[in-house]
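re the bet — no i am not wrong, look at it urself. input seq straight from the record:
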Amino acid sequence: MKLTILGGGGFRVPLVYGALLTDRAEGRVTEVVLHDLDAGRLSAVARVLAEQAAGVPGAPAVTATTDLDEALTGADFVFSAIRVGGLEGRANDERVALAEGVLGQETVGAGGVAYGLRTVPVAVDIARRVARLAPDAWVINFTNPAGLVTEAMSRHLGDRVIGICDSPVGLGRRIARVLGGDPKEAWIDYVGLNHLGWVRGLHIAGRDELPRLLADPDLLGSFEEGKLFGVDWLQSLGAIPNEYLHYYYFNREAVRAYQQAERTRGAFLRDQQAHFYEAVTDPGARALDVWDRTRAEREATYMAENRETAGAGERDADDLSGGYEKVALALMRAIARDERTTLILNVRNRGTLSVLDGEAVIEVPCLVDANGAHPVAVAPLPDHATGLVCAVKAVEREVLAAAESGSRTTAVKAFALHPLVDSVNVARRLVEGYTEVHPGLAYLK
C-alpha cells in the first residue's frame, strides 16, 4: 500500500513514519513517498527516516520527490501536512495581527483567517489533482486550519477527505487518566469544530464519569485543562473545552502575553527548525537524535504563553509524546482492513449538528470502517457553544468564498465577522497588512 505525504519535508513526518514501523499486519503501508517543494528539507527528513528504519525488517520503502503529480499517482492514502508560506508566513501572521491588538494564532482569530486565505487555493488544487490522478485514494488532512481546509477539499473529494487533529485525543486521554480509566476504553462525548470543541461526557464501562470530575475541585484542577481554564470556569461551563478555547475565553490575557513575549510561537519554531535542518546537513550528525531533541523542546513549549498567563506550570510528561500520527494510523487501518474503530475526526456534518448544514465540516466521534468515517449522533450544544460554533463556521464560509472569488471585500468580511476581531476598520487594516507580507494573497482584488 502506498502512502504519499504532502509536506514530506516537514518536521513532524518522522512521527508518522515511526507509527508505520510498528504496523506488522498484512495490508500495511509498504511504500512512502515524501513530497515537498524544498529538496533540502526532503533530504534532511529522509535521513531521519533512514535512521528510524535501520534494523527494522520490512520497513516501508521511502522515496522523495518535488513533483506533485508524481507523488500522487497511484497513492492509496494521501497525508496532507503542508504549510503554505512556511514558518516565516506563520510568524508574519502573528506579527501583523498583534500590531493591531488582536490574536494572530495560526488557526484562531485573525491569524487563522489569514492562514486559511492563502492555504485554501493550494489545498483545492491538491484535491483536484487527487481526484484526477488517484481517484480511489483517501486523503487524511492535517493541514491547518484543519476543519476549514478539510471542508475546502471535500467540495472536490466528498467524504474521501477526512481531517484529523491530536487535540481532542489528548484531551480525552487526560480526562480518562485523571478519572482512573483506560483512555482506550473510554467513550468521549466531544463535539464542535476543529480547535473549537467541548467534552460533555466521558463514559467508562457505560457510565458517564465527567460529573464526578466536575464535582471534585481537587481532581478537576489536577490536569492541563483544569490548570489552564480554572476550576470555577469549568464548573460553570459543565464541560471541558478544547485547549484552544483559551484564546476565546481569556483573549485579552492571551493577546497581552503574546505581545510581551520575546518571540511569537511562529518565530520560535521558524528559528528552531532552521537550526534543525542546518544541523542535519552535517554528515557526521546523528539526524534522529537531533530531531528528537528538537521535538522534545517543541512539545515542552507548546502554548507556553497561555500556561504562563493561567499559572498552569509545565506540561505533564505524558502529554509530550504527540498523538496525531496514532490517529492517522488507526484511520488508515480501519479503512484499508475494515478494522472498525471510533475516532474523533473532522468530517461533513450530514445532519449531526442540526444548526449547521450537511456540508459543513465538524469535529465529532465517528465510526470508521472500509467505507470511511461516519459521524455519530450527538446531543445539541448549549446555546453559548452553538453561538460560537455558528459564528466561526460563518467566518470559514467567507474565507472559502473569498478564496474562490478572489474578492478582497469578502476577505475583509471574513476578518470582521470573527468573534476575536473587534472592528471592521481593524479587519480592513489586517487585509492590507497581510497582502503586503504574503505574496500568496495577491489574488485578492
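see?? Residues 109-133 form the longest helix (25 residues). told u. also The chain has a mean pLDDT of 95. so pay up
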